[in-house]
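re: ur question from yesterday

yeah so i grabbed the chain u mentioned. its 337 aa long if i counted rite. heres the sequnce exactly as i have it in my notes:
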Amino acid sequence: YSTAIEYFNKSLESQDIKDFPDRFRIYLRIGDCYRKKGNYKEAWTLLEQARDLLGDDAPLESLGKVDYREAYILYAQGNYDEALKIGFSAYRRLKHSSEHREVADVQLLLANCYHRLGLTSEAEDFFMDSLSSYRRIEDRVGIAYVYHNLGLLHKNACRWNRALASLSKSLELAKSLGLSQHLVRVQLNLGVVYAKLRRFTDALSAFTNASKMAERLGDQDKLTKAVLMKGRTYVQCGEFCKAEKLILRGQALANDLGYGRESILADEYLGELMIGRGRLQEALANLNNALKKAKQLAPEGDITAEIMRRVADVHYLLNDTRRAKKMISEGLEIANN
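ran it thru and got these structure tokens back, copy pasting raw so excuse formatting
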């Protein structure tokens, strides 16, 4: 992506290009490169520059393209409600256009927003809509993305065999199409499923592969995720020194780069680590910090309910059954909704 950014910037120096559509299209491309590198601040700046080039009579689909990319960044930063709102704005502007691939991309984004907000039925509907849209235009890349996200949906519903089946389909498509970045993403989530199945050796291998590929590609977002998940797996294996080093590195990356969800996960995993070491007050401090962030980010989301469960565990270990029951009740209410 760095090479692509360099060439795109050179093309902006040409005296022959028009602000619209030429410069507008190049700004979107450069912004896409930064977004795929996980550099969301730079990507957002490019989108603002692209939007500034659009006049009052700009085509709706052009506005929709900017909306979609802004929504994607908000989603990546963990701002799911705002991402959903802007994503629907993009969908309304694009759905009757000839930009079929962009429509499918937006449907996939909306599905992911619903998924993160814990709205499984709505998420599955939009996943299937996006799968149909990608199949209609024979977009195998898009199909690989949808299978990956269906794998995540099944994973979160604890349907492990279906999760592995969907993720494996996505992995094979990614390998055949040479989708390096997507391979990182699929490896990450295969690692999560392996860890859930307590196949820790397979999980560590998947996370190691993902972190190496992400670092080579300069993808800070996925590198952060891989480092954190590898650290958590070491917690589960009881190798606390290795775990702490990795989780602290992931926490620093998340905080420096503005990755909201990963910042929460780092606090949660540090809490798990302290539980493993028997340092319960430190565990509670980390988990309460994670819970505070989660309530701001996604008050009705899966991550909030999961952290509440862990906070309840610590209160129980501290013999504070009243607070444990209260936290369990609040977490169950979110989970049931």
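noticed a couple things. The first helix runs from residue 2 to 11. also The CA atoms of residues 294 and 304 lie 5 Å apart.
anyway ttyl
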